[in-house]
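Before going further, it is useful to explain how the protein records used in this thesis are read. An example of such a record is reproduced below.

***
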Amino acid sequence: MKFYGVRRGRTTGVFDSWDACRKQVYKFPDAEYKAFPTREEALAFVSPSSPNLEKTKKKSDASSDSTTSIWVDGSCFPQSDGSLRIGWGVLVKQGGEEVYRAKGNDIPLEAVVHRNVAGEIFGILKSLEWCQAQGIAEVTLYFDYQGLESWATGAWRAKLPFTQLYAQTVKASGITIHWIKVKAHSGIPENDIVDQLAKEGAMG
């Protein structure tokens, strides 16, 4: 069982489930939260100055940040010759501050059939590579196509080679992902940023 400490959100405190935690932090500006194996650690995170709890020393490296949030998007532009230009975009924030962004169009040929979803998948894979390099073990990932979560969790059966490889890679990453589906083009600044990055990546 995990305990979720919310240090900044609609309601702060310790929650016994991700669903309860999510209600406090979803779309809340610069939300701060983290999962812990014990209630005591979650309480220490929420109230680090408590006299009965040891204050956790803040580290300077990226892996020490308690809230790593990732936004991804993909874009697809059909060309006059029948080909497709597909791009991906990634934005990573920690504690409300941007720490990484990237874009590209290095989509393998076998993935082109998935069009813009291929870009979103590649965005996730690229972001997980970055997290692994930084030693980050837990993230909240914002996305707008349900298959990204459902293939990765097994709720949907991945039938094609590229989606099968995607699901296997996410599982093998060892990173705990909290999935949050957002509506595309809904005015969320971070989502607008990755949308633009994906478009630039596709045409780059």
